[in-house]
Structure formats: C-alpha cells, structure tokens
C-alpha cells in the first residue's frame, strides 16, 4: 500500500497484550543468538528506533502518500510493546499480516515478503526481541487519510495483492545456495520492497520483480541479471562485496536507503549468505527497465558536456572512468543508468561524505541552476557508454532541492554530522577545527595539514572516517560565522573536504 523506504520494519503496527503460553524463552542463548542474526537480516532496528530513541521502541515517522505512519514499540514491554504475544500470534503476524486482535496489518510492514520465512526462524527472531530491555513507549496512531485509515478496507488490498506463503514451511538447506539466496532476498531481505515497481495502491509489481523502483525520493536500481541495466555483468564476488561494503569494485557506491541498509543490516551477514544472495540475483530473469534506444549521446558538444568538464571531469575524468580506489566511475554505474535520475540529481545537489576510503564529493549543484543540474545529469546518464532516458526536468531538480538535507550541503547546523572517532572529537573539543573555520582562506591548507598531522589512520577506511568526521566538525564551525549564504557554505565545505582527503591520503602513504 505504501512506498516508503529501503529500511522497512521487521514487525509493524503491533498492539500490547498479556503473557501467553508457548512463548519462546529469552534465556535460550543459542536461539537468541540465531534470532539476532535473522533480525539483522530483516533490519528491524532501523525502522523501530526513532532518532535519539531507544532501540526497538518504535516511534519513527514514515511519510507515505496516504499519510504518516509511526513504527510501533517491539520491545517486550507488556503494556506498550509486544510482551504479551504468543508464538502463534507472532507467527500469524509475520506470516499472514494479521495482528494480535485479528486486525489486518498495514502493508507498510512487509509481510508479503515475511510470509516466506520459516516458522522456526520467526520464533528465533521473537526470542531475540524478547531478550531485549522492555521500554515503555506507547504507539502513536497513524495519520492516514480516508479510506486508508479503515482497517477493514485492507481486505480488498489483501485479496488483490497478497499471496500467503506455505504454512509452517522450513528454511532451505544452506548447501543449496540458490535456494538460500532466494529465501533471503525474497524473505527477510525483502529486496523487492524497494527494487520492485509498485502500482498506485503501493502494491509490489510481482510480474517484474527486482527491475527497479522508487523509494523515499531515491531510485532503487534494476538488480536482475540484465547485463547492462542490472547486475548481470557483475561477478558473484563483486555483488557480495557490494552487499557487505556498499562499494562496487568497478563502478559506484551505495546511496541513500541502500547505504543505510548495508550499515544496519547486510554488513552483519556472513559471507556464505551474501554469496548465496549474489548467486540468486545472478539467476533472476533479466529484465530491462527501459529501452536502450531511449538514450545515449554519441557526439561531442552534447548538451551538458561543457558543464561536466567544468564541474565533474577533474575527479571523474573526461571519460567517466573515475580513479580506482578513490573516485567512483560514472561509466556503467548502476545508480547513474537507473530508469529514474533521482539518485544522480540528489548527489549533484547534496554531495557525498567519504565512504569506505573513497573521496568526498562536494555539493556542486548548490551553486548551479535547476536547468544546469538537469542538463548535466542527463549528460552523465548518456555518455561514456551509458544510455538512459534523458528526461530530467528543472522542476524535478527544484523538487529535490527543496527537500534535500546533507552534511555536504548543510542548510542548518543540525545537518552536520557529529564526529564519531575519538581523535576528531578531541580536535573539535579543543577548538582546533573552529580555528580553521575562522582562519584567513590563504591559511586553509597549512591549517588542514596541522589537523591531519594529529591523526593516525590505520587503513584507508579509517582515513575516510577521519575525513568525514573532520568535515562534520568543520560544518558545525561554519555556522559560528554569520552571513555565509548556503552555496558559499557548500563551496567551503567542498574545498575543505577535498583538501582534507588529499592530505590524509598523503599521510597514509608516508
């Protein structure tokens, strides 16, 4: 019914009850440990923990086309959580989308995928949740508009779009890699929740599974075995590495909800399961989201070429090849050639912090017009061998610009990332970074050199984390200075980020 985000709740819209017989014992350490792994695969903590809130206590607001929904408390609290749910009730909710009182659950909870999860695995997840600290946190009612606020209306939706899995099915033998991969992708992983198209009622288009879809203003790309628009040209090892790290060995990096899913879920899975998922994706019937005849520039002087050369080529290269280990390639990059241009527009406007040791990207679109951003986005999507629909409009860019908030753009101080590493926290606390923000611009490079000299990265990944933390602290320091317009602030952040990354790489090589 709703198309919301890449990280969807493991359990949704539950109500309180009383302790019942048959409850999985929380002190069964093996069961709890297994449940923790499965809960990670389902990414339940991401949606059931609001910013600044306690884990699994719910309260995260999800904006849907039909009104807001707030994720519920799934801690074992008896009054406000799920502490009174029996094994049968818990399984019925996961398998059939029916709550404790027999109410239909809203399909913001992806039970159409969880219906494929075995009963044993469901009970293990329940054991893990019941081993958590109970938190008293009453659920907030959804703010859905009529008729979506009437639960009985969900019967029609279920009749049309929900196909219940086999009852009490068993998980496949792990030695059957393709079956195990299908079980994870089409079950707990619920990959189609983002990567499938949806109809006007938010139901997944099962007939074209994994061919790409829109989610939270991002475009989740085609992940079928198609060799151009999907992952058919990737090796199994490359897919598994991407699922683990968010970095594609030959092209780009995970963006938006996918990066969050990797951070909160996929990176915790073992290599066997990641390779099983990769093997299954390689077996999915290839499907093209759009015709290659819809795009492709085969001449010089194409619209956007001059903009690309002025703003992008210095890092990504004239042929979009990037720099291995430092700058992602734009050629044959799945996020670039997706059916929709939302992802690349968001990156142009909002930039990227350093991830997995890669260089940060300035928010170059902050000082470009909506028309220029649309033009250069379509140029990148149709150059270097890429071919995608050149349909980006200035109004599309304006819509994204009005909503986007990133650490590299920083419309407000709250957008700045807080440093996570102790070494950068110390530099922020002693005023070193604030002094750089207030220094004369000609002193920027030596000031950055002085900061970097105090940091001791042990690896490229740690160096990237230091750079991101430095940028976050520098971002906060910029707000101490009054009067800097947003494009100017984005320009300063970009310059600082680029110099900090460059100097950090130099230090790493010493």
Q: What do you see in this structure?
A:
Helix 14 packs across helix 16 and helix 17 (422-429) runs parallel beside helix 20. With 510 residues, the protein is mainly alpha-helical. A two-stranded antiparallel sheet has the order 1-2. It has a two-stranded antiparallel ribbon with strand order 3-4. It has helices at 29-42, 44-47, 87-96, 111-114, 119-130, 154-161, 177-188, 192-195, 236-245, 256-264, 271-283, 305-311, 313-316, 342-350, 370-381, 394-403, 422-429, 432-438, 444-453, 460-478, 486-509, and strands spanning 61-64, 67-70, 213-215, 218-220. The protein is globular. The protein folds into four domains: 29-161; 177-283, Cytochrome Bc1 Complex, Chain D, domain 2; 292-403, Cytochrome Bc1 Complex, Chain D, domain 2; 418-509, no CATH class. It contains 21 helices and four strands.
- The total of beta strands comes to 4
* Rg from Cα: 24 Å
Oligomer: single chain
- SSE succession: HHEEHHHHHHEEHHHHHHHHHHHHH
Flag low-confidence runs: 1-24
Largest sheet: 2 strands, antiparallel
Kindly estimate the percentage of residues that lie in beta strands according to DSSP: under 5%
| Total number of domains | 4
Proportion of helical residues: 40-55%
Query: Rough shape?
Result: globular
Structural class: mainly alpha
Number of distinct helices: 21
Strand order, largest beta sheet = 1-2
The overall pLDDT average reads 84
Separation of the first and last Cα atoms: 55 Å
Key traits:
510 residues, mainly alpha, Cytochrome Bc1 Complex, Chain D, domain 2, two-stranded antiparallel ribbon, 21 helices, 41% helix
């Amino acid at each position: 019914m709703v198309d919301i985000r890449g990280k969807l709740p493991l359990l949704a819209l539950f109500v309180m009850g009383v302790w019942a017989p048959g409850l999985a014992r929380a002190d069964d350490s093996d069961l709890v440990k297994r449940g923790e792994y499965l809960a990670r695969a389902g990414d339940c903590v991401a949606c059931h923990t609001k910013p600044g809130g306690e884990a699994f206590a719910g309260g995260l607001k999800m904006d849907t086309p039909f009104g807001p929904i707030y994720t519920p408390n799934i801690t074992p609290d008896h009054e406000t959580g799920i502490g009174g749910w029996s094994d049968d009730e818990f399984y019925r909710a996961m398998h059939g989308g029916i709550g404790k009182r027999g109410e239909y659950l809203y399909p913001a909870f992806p039970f159409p995928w969880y219906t494929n999860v075995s009963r044993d695995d469901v009970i293990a997840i329940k054991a893990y949740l019941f081993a958590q600290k109970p938190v008293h946190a009453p659920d907030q009612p959804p703010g859905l508009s009529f008729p979506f606020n009437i639960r009985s209306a969900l019967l029609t939706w279920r009749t049309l779009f929900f196909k219940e899995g086999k009852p009490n099915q068993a998980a496949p033998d792990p030695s059957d890699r393709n079956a195990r991969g299908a079980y994870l992708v089409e079950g707990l992983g619920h990959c189609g929740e983002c990567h499938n198209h949806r109809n006007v009622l938010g139901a997944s288009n099962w007939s074209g599974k994994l061919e790409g879809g829109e989610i939270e203003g991002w475009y989740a790309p085609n992940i079928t075995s198609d060799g151009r628009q999907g992952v058919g040209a990737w090796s199994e090892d490359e897919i598994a590495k991407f699922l683990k790290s968010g970095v594609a060995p030959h092209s780009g990096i995970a963006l938006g909800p996918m990066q969050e899913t990797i951070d909160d879920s996929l990176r915790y899975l073992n290599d066997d399961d990641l390779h099983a998922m990769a093997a299954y994706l390689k077996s999915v019937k290839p499907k093209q989201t759009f015709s290659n005849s819809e795009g492709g520039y085969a001449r010089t002087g194409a619209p956007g070429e001059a903009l690309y050369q002025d703003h992008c080529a210095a890092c990504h290269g004239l042929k979009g090849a990037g720099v291995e280990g430092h700058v992602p390639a734009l050629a044959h990059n799945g996020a670039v050639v997706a059916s929709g241009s939302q992802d690349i527009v968001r990156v142009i406007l909002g930039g990227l912090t350093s991830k997995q040791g890669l260089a940060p990207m300035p928010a170059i679109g902050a000082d470009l017009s909506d028309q220029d951003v649309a033009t250069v986005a379509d140029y990148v999507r149709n150059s270097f061998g890429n071919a995608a629909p050149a349909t980006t409009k200035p109004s599309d860019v304006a819509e994204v610009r009005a909503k986007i908030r990133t650490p590299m753009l920083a419309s407000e101080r709250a957008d700045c990332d807080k440093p996570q590493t102790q070494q950068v926290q110390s530099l922020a606390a002693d005023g070193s970074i604030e002094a750089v923000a207030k220094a004369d611009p000609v002193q920027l490079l030596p000031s950055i050199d002085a900061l970097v000299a105090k940091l001791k990265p042990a690896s490229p990944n740690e160096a990237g984390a230091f750079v991101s933390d430095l940028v976050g602290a520098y971002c906060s320091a910029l707000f101490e200075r009054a009067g800097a317009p947003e494009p100017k602030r984005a320009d300063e952040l970009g310059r600082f980020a680029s110099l900090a990354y460059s100097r950090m790489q130099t230090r790493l090589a010493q």
